[in-house]
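Researcher: Here's my situation. A collaborator sent me these components and asked whether they could plausibly form a single complex. I don't have experimental data yet, so a predicted model of the whole assembly would be a useful starting point for our discussion.
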Amino acid sequence: GQNIDQPTEMTATEGAIVQINCTYQTSGFNGLFWYQQHAGEAPTFLSYNVLDGLEEKGRFSSFLSRSKGYSYLLLKELQMKDSASYLCARGATDSWGKLQFGAGTQVVVTP
Amino acid sequence: DTAVSQTPKYLVTQMGNDKSIKCEQNLGHDTMYWYKQDSKKFLKIMFSYNNKELIINETVPNRFSPKSPDKAHLNLHINSLELGDSAVYFCASSQVRGLGSYEQYFGPGTRLTVT
């Protein structure tokens, strides 16, 4: 199948760095997305990688290795408001715009 | 201006009833989606429409019937509601150009509780 694996929960302190790893099946791969979802709210787009390498957007960076079926989201200078679930989502070639989501990683930022 | 809106935000109903959830997007996108997020927070695609045509239909009971009157609207009708249908339903939209992957914008969600 297209299993997407990411850790269930991570805890870090304010100001620290956290790296959330995501692995996925490579066949039919068509891009990797990261979304942030606060409790009771909708997922919001953070980043998109389709080529190998690092994409940086302010405090958030995302990395992709297509050959390894691996991505990570790096959150720097953590703030309390970063406490949320981070969803890894894999684009698929078999259908227009189809995304397959992982179960999410709950990041808890402590003072 | 809300980009993707859904109504209602909360829906509490009894088993066996029929209910509808409405979704509208004002982003000019041509593709809309319905997702179900269960109690374990797993977000799973149910349906997708591109320019009013069904393009994704995952393994969903046929009690669920989407309808797209135009490319800005995608509604979800659910017949004979069951306890297991309790979840948060998210509508999303994106601009899709061929077999690619594109950023999706999500609505605020509809929390359905079946008693």
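Model: Some features of this prediction you could bring to your collaborator: The radius of gyration of chain B is 13 Å. The first strand of chain B starts at residue 4 and ends at 7.
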